[in-house]
Known about the structure:
Chain A folds into two domains: 2-183, 3-Layer(aba) Sandwich (Rossmann fold), CATH 3.40.50; 191-277, Nitrogenase molybdenum iron protein domain (Rossmann fold). Chain A is built from eleven helices and eight strands. Chain A has helices spanning 2-22, 41-51, 74-81, 98-106, 140-157, 163-189, 206-212, 224-228, 232-245, 257-268, 292-308, and strands at 36-38, 57-59, 85-88, 111-113, 197-200, 215-218, 249-251, 273-275.
Amino acid sequence: MVAAMKRRSLAALPLLAAASAVLPGCAAFGSDRSGIVVTTNILGDLTRNVVGDQVEVTVLMAAGADPHSFGVSARQAASLEQAELLIHNGLGLEEGVIGHVEAAVAAGVPDLAVGEHVDPIDYSADATAGLPDPHFWTDPVRVGEAVDLIADRVIEQVSGIDAEQVRADAEAYRAQIDELHEHTTALFGRIPEEHRKLVTDHHVFGYLAQRYDFEIIGAVIPSGTTLASPSASDLKDLADAVAASGVPAVFADSAQPDLLVQAMAEETGVDIEVIPLFTESLTEPGQGAGTYLEMARSNAEAIAGGLAGH
Amino acid sequence: MPHATRARIAALTAGCALLAGCSSGAPPGEDAPTPHGYVEGAEETAEAQLRLVMADTETGAVHMLDPVTEETVEVAQFEGAQAMDTDGRFVYIGGASSTEVLDSGVWTVDHGDHVHYYRTEPRTVGGIDGSGFAPIGDPAVTVLNSAAHVIALDRESLEAGEAGASDELDAEAVLPYGRRLLAVDGGAVRVLGRDGSLESELDATCAEPQGQTVTRRGAVFGCRDGAVLITGDDELTAETIPYPGAGVDGGFHHRPGTAAPAARSETGGILVLDIKERRWTEIPVQGVVAVTATGEDSPVLVLTDDGVLRSYDPASGAELARLALMTITDGGTPAIQVDTARAYVNDPAGAAVYEIDYRDDLRLARTFEVDFRPDLMVETGW
C-alpha cells in the first residue's frame, strides 16, 4: 500500500512541476505546496527517519555525488519551489544549488538551514580560516540536535502531519544516534591519547576532531604522476606528518594505495597504512555508507582500527 | 495521510491544467535529473586528471597523453596549427587566421579549502575567427587576448560544445577577476561587470599592455613602465611595480595560480615578479626558448637554445641545476608546462616528452616516447 502510494505520487509530481514551471501563476497556489525537499543525501536520510512515510521526501543530491557541486534539473528546481519545507545544510556547502535554494526561500518556501543551528565551528586551516565549516555531520552529537530541529520544523510547517508520530520516530532515531555516539566514544577510548591524530587530506573531520579530541594533521597525499616515478622529496610532507602522528595510519582516498605504500617504504623508509573514509556523501545501499548511521559507524571503526592497535 | 497528500497533488495538477499554457510541459531534455557536476556525463575523480595535449603541425594530428596511464590517444585533426594555449580545460589551437577550440575533458574546480577534479570525454568545440590568442579563464568566462582583439567566451556554451557565444571586448587587454573583468584601454585600468558595463576606473595607468595573468595574490598586467597589480575582493586597488631596467616582452608564464610569474625581458633575459614582496628579479640568461615559474620559493625553469633545461632561484636569480634534454632544431615549439608535482617539456625533433621533478634538481622522472612530432604542447586538467 505504501509502496503503491509512492509510485503514484512520484508519477504525479513531474506533471505538477512541469505545469508550474511553465506558468508562474501556478505558484499562487501557495497553500497547495506539498512535500519536503532536501538538498544533501545525508540530511535526506535524517529527514526520512523523522517523517517516515507520512510525507514525500525528495532528495536532490544523488548517492555518491559531491555536495559542493551537484546541480539540479529543471524539474527538481521546480519541485523545490513547490515544497512545503526545504531542508538544506547551509554554511556554504551546497554551492551548486545555492541559487535555487535562495530563490525558493525568497518565493516564500519555508526552510531550515540545519548547519546554522547546530553551533557551527570555523575552519582553522590557512586559506579558509575563519569561515564556517559546513561538515557538521562528522559529529554525531550535532546530528542528534539536527534530528530534533528537523522534527520541530516538520511539525511546524507540514500541514496535516501526525505530530505525535513524528516525535516518536524522531526519538527512536535519536536513540540510535545517541548509541552511535556512545559506540564511537568507546571505540576511540581505546586509542592512546598520544595517537589521537588523523593524518589526512580530507577537510571534513574538524567536527569529529573537536568532539572526540583528535588533532588533524593535514598532509599532501602523493598521487598519479608523483607515484609513477617518486623521489624522497615528493613524499617528504607525508613522511613528516606520519612521523608527527607516531602511527602509520593515513586516512585518505588514493587511486593507487598499494603504490603509495610501496613508494613510501622505498623512498622514505616509512611504513604506512592507507585507510579510506566516507566524507561528504552517502553511497548506494550496500556499498558501505547507504545510511548516515552506517557511514558514521564505518568511519569510527576505520579510525579506531587504524590508530588503536599501535 | 498519504491519501490527503496525493489528493492535494491531483487537485493542483487539475487546476493548472485548466489554465492555458499549463499543458505544454517542460522540454523532455530538462526532465532528466542532473545529480552531479556541471556537465552531463562528467565524472568526479579522486585525483587530478592531467593531460598533455600535443599537435603535430605537419600532419595536423592532435594527441592527448595521460601521464598516469602513459597512454596516448589521437583526439582531433587540425590542419595548419601554429600555436597552442589553454585555460586549463579548453585548448585553443591557432592557425593562420582562425583558432580551433578543443575540450580536453579534464578540469579542476577550486573551492578554496579543497578542490574537485572532473573528467569527461574530449571533443572538438568549434572555430573562432582570429589567432594568436592568450586565453585566461575562470568558471564563468574565458577571455582570449590577442594583439588584434579581445574576445570573451561563455564557459557554459563551451562546456555545451559551442564556441559561438563570444563577445568582442573593446579594450587592449582584459582579465576575468573575481566576478568581474579588468580591462586596460588607452592607458586606463577599468573594472567592468560581467556584462561589460563600466563599474569603476582604478588609480593606475597601463600603457602598451604586454601580457596579463591572474594569481592567488592578485591580477597582473605587464605594462610599459612596470607591472600593474590589482588586489582586493569587493574593493579593488591597483599599484604599479616598476621594472628594475628593461620591461617584459610578451606574456607571463607560471604554474597556474602561483604568485611569482616569469616573463621574457626586452633584453632577452628573464624577469620574475614576486607579488608578495612587490619585487622583480632579473635572470640574465640568453638564448631563451621557453620559460615558466613553478611558484613562490620554487625554481624558475628556462629552456635555452642549446637544449639545456636550467632552474633558477626566483629571489637571487642564481642557477640551481641544469639538465641537457634535447637538440633544438627548426620547426616545433618546445614548451615547459608545470603542475604541482612535475614539469613537462616537449621535444619535437626527438618525438618525446620529458617529465621533470623540478623540486629535485631537475631529476628526469620519466621520458614518454611518442610516434608523432609533438610540435606544440599544453597541459590541461587544472
